[in-house]
User: Fold these one by one.
Assistant:
Number 1:
Amino acid sequence: MIRACDVADLPDGEAIRILAHVPIAVFHVDGAYYAVDDTCTHQDASLADGWVEGCTVECPLHAASFDLRTGVPLCLPAKTAVRTYPVVVSGGVIYVDTGVSEGVA
């Protein structure tokens, strides 16, 4: 598990980028938290810099959209899903389970 941030530091409708074995975007949407690979699968752009509406994030570069729950692309130009990660909130802190042991890059 990787510490993302305190709950208080991620307002609803916002996202942050954290560095793990790959960059990961963590989103706060209507009281729920989602984590996906931060890099759009169409072209190198940060999804944390994208536009969030409901459980969808739109890439800021070419407007590809992804479902934050599944990582599935919802429209072209993206054709490949982004990886999703389980998110755990404990003691007011948001953690992302990357499946990679800490200290391993």
Note: The chain has a mean pLDDT of 94.
Number 2:
Amino acid sequence: MTTKKNFYHEYEVFSKRSATSPFQHQFCLLAPNEDIALVMAQENFMRREPVEDIWVVKRENIRSLDPEEKRSLARLDNKDYRTAKGYGYLKKKWRQYEQKMLDEKEILSWGGDGKK
């Protein structure tokens, strides 16, 4: 018994509003080929809002990461200094440092010329 080939394929539709904007995923659709998928995407999307460009990609041609590759994205060590939250403590530390310096200057000013 031979398996029947699917007539329809899944396509993902991406568009961008202007020449400088990034492509964004809009929706997926079923179509027998790329040409009809493009026409369907234009009919369903481009008539509703202005579009600079449109991509129609067969879903099977989109590659995603497998579980092994996803694990490689995990951080190897603590790199909080690379995120904005990693610097949150600096304002408090700087204030403490400035206060300490002010206190030392103040203390030195109390000594006068060093004679009693």
Note: The two ends are 111 Å apart (CA to CA).
Number 3:
Amino acid sequence: MEDLPPEALQQVAAYFQALSEPTRLQILNLLRGGERNVGELAKACGYTAANVSRHLTHLQQQGLVEREGRGTSVFYRIADPAVFALCDLVCGNIARKHERNAAERRVFSRTAGTGPLSKP
């Protein structure tokens, strides 16, 4: 992102904003297995078709999904599989953070009751 003009940073922020909604991440994860229509996605997510459709529109605007009409149905698929590499990178970072926090908690739990303020 080095030396990007403000307009480009706005686009980057909009892309990340599309990924900041848990329902959209759930939809992307479902589409990882292949294309689906709105009804299938709504049923799998437990949301209304209108709600899922709104999220899909947002994902499409950011270039994350593509839509294709077939007869009376519209099918969605991943437009840029690199989004999964990005999500996996973030998930790995979060997992490492939790591991560090757990390790720090274990250190304190092992020393509980042995410090200078503990009761004899």
Note: The mean pLDDT is 90.
